[in-house]
Design a protein that fits this description.
four-stranded antiparallel sheet; Rossmann fold; six-stranded mixed sheet; alpha/beta
Length: 257
């Protein structure tokens, strides 16, 4: 398998603060693989996602992030996006003044500059993706996430993932706040839009989405680093016994505050 993302002993903190949040993360995602990252609240899962995407709020203090063999540590967020990285937000922002359809098309043109697909064809793709997600046509003419329900916001993120066709999709708690019907739709569409070579890092607190999106690997993330890796069975163990079972097994202290 060809490595898509390699995180090497990554350490990071909030810029202008002294508290280390990422404490030596190591992770390799190969093309086509789905990796689930599970951990209690406050363990730093979302911070890892933001650092991978180059959020300027955070400062990398040591280690490296390689994407298709190239270090991206010094690249801006938009430069990383153009390389093929995508991140969905746990709490998507509302953006007044920019309609969803306009945003999708402009983003696609910016990322896939060499693609000569026509506007008509792009709109057909958007319409089909929207139908798959049970989003009506009016949704596309609304401002980004403005007035959207929680479920619509999460579906909007998967719509973007499917339309922009990234090489790596980082999904930060895409399942949070969804009822079972919305969860099933979101999960089905993650499976639908994930192409053969797309890598996925699925960050979650619970195992339930993994009933629908089956990971190749499950990583348990505690206090700023990965402490255990296994198959989907590991996620089921955590669901049944909680993260606290790792305290005795691995001699670590877990706070779920």
């Amino acid at each position: 398998m060809s490595a898509l993302l390699e995180i090497q002993d990554l350490r990071a903190k909030v810029r202008d603060e002294d508290v280390e949040i990422l404490k030596g993360v190591n992770l390799t995602i190969n093309k086509g693989e789905i990796h689930a990252l599970m951990g209690p609240n406050g363990s730093g899962k979302s911070t890892l996602a933001h650092v991978i995407m180059g959020n300027p709020k955070y400062q990398v203090t040591s280690g490296d992030i390689l994407f298709e063999g190239q270090s991206i540590i010094d690249l801006s967020t938009d430069e990383r996006a153009k390389l093929g990285l995508f991140m969905s937000f746990q709490t998507p922002e509302e953006v007044e003044g920019i309609k969803m359809r306009q945003f999708l098309i402009n983003s696609f043109r910016n990322i896939h500059k060499e693609d000569k697909i026509t506007l008509l064809e792009l709109n057909k793709v958007i319409s089909q993706l929207s139908q798959n997600l049970d989003l009506n046509g009016e949704f596309l003419e609304r401002y980004i996430n403005t007035g959207f329900s929680g479920g619509e916001k999460k579906k909007s993120e998967i719509l973007q993932m499917g339309f922009l066709k990234p090489k790596l999709s980082i999904l930060d708690e895409i399942d949070s706040g969804l009822d079972i019907d919305a969860l099933r739709i979101v999960a089905e569409n993650i499976n639908r839009v994930k192409t053969g070579n797309m890598g996925v890092l699925l960050i979650t607190h619970y195992q339930r989405i993994l009933n629908f999106v089956v990971p190749d690997y499950v990583h348990i993330y505690i206090d700023g680093k990965i402490v255990k890796t296994g198959s989907e069975e590991l996620a089921k163990e955590i669901e049944e016994n909680g993260y606290s079972t790792l305290e005795q097994e691995m001699g670590i202290t877990i706070s779920e505050e």
